[in-house]
């Protein structure tokens, strides 16, 4: 049905390495590969195998779970997008909550990757990591603007006072740096 590769860490792994929970759910215990160093695994490539046909309205959703945390959505693949390289942003360990693919009374002791067949319409985004990169970029640009404004502001009671043309000056400086140094904008991305 599907295969997985951890770039620079593994050979292709097929579905037989995963524990099948039921017809539509599989779990890979990361202790199998890396033990407690699961958070060093930063990427995963997942792909549909050639002879498997996923219905067009379905997706294989990928979830991550750190020890003691709930599963969190990571991304998905579909018949129209049969492979993806996903950034693995592991949840904080020990942030117990509802457990997907496990019984409510069990606390997971190792990190896991869950794969689930789900309706495509129920998934908000196929690639959570791309959305997180965009959010991170926006936060870094906002932080850059705030730091620039702080160097020109004064305080009037509980209000910051900045020159009227501060946004124009910041944007011009931002554009000049980006033009001079192509690597400048890459520093804003994860």
Task: Please supply descriptive tags for the structure shown above.
Hikeshi-like_N; Hikeshi-like domain-containing protein; nuclear import signal receptor activity; Hikeshi-like_C; OPI10
Kindly describe this structure:
One of its GO terms (cellular component) is cytosol. It comes from Coptis chinensis. This is Hikeshi-like domain-containing protein. Belongs to the OPI10 family. GO terms for molecular function: nuclear import signal receptor activity. By secondary structure, this protein is of the alpha+beta class. Helix content is 22%, strand content 28%. The protein has three helices and eleven strands; from the N terminus they run βββββββββαββαα. It has helices at 128-150, 166-180, 183-186, and strands spanning 2-5, 13-14, 19-22, 25-29, 43-48, 58-65, 72-77, 83-87, 112-119, 154-156, 159-161. The protein folds into two domains: 2-124, no CATH class; 130-186, no CATH class.
Outline, from the CA principal axes? elongated
Overall radius of gyration = 22 Å
Uncertain runs are 97-104
- What is the strand tally? 11
Q: What structural category arises from helix and sheet content?
A: alpha+beta
> What is the oligomeric state here?
single chain
Domains, number:
2
- Can you list the strand order of the major beta sheet? 3-4-9-6-7
Question: Helix share of residues?
Answer: 10-25%
Major sheet size, sense and barrel closure: 5 strands, antiparallel
Series of secondary-structure elements, N-terminal to C-terminal: EEEEEEEEEHEEHH
Strand content: 25-35%
DSSP helix count?
A: 3
Compute the average pLDDT. Answer: 81
Head-to-tail CA distance between termini = 32 Å
């Amino acid at each position: 049905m599907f295969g997985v590769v951890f770039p620079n860490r593994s050979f292709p792994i097929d579905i037989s390495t995963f524990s099948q929970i039921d017809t539509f759910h599989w779990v890979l215990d990361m202790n199998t590969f890396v033990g407690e160093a699961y958070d060093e695994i930063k990427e995963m490539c997942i792909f549909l195998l050639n002879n498997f046909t996923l219905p067009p309205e379905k997706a294989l959703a990928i979830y991550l779970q750190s020890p003691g945390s709930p599963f969190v959505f990571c991304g998905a693949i579909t018949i129209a997008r049969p492979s993806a390289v996903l950034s693995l942003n592991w949840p904080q360990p020990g942030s117990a909550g509802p457990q997907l693919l496990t019984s409510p009374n069990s606390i997971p002791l190792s990190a896991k990757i869950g794969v689930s067949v789900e309706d495509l319409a129920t998934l908000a985004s196929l690639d959570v990591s791309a959305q997180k990169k965009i959010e991170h970029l926006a936060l870094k640009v906002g932080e850059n603007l705030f730091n620039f404004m702080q160097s020109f502001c004064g305080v009037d009671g509980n209000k910051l006072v900045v020159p009227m043309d501060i946004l124009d000056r910041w944007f011009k400086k931002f554009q000049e740096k980006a033009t001079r140094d192509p690597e400048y904008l890459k520093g804003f991305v994860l």
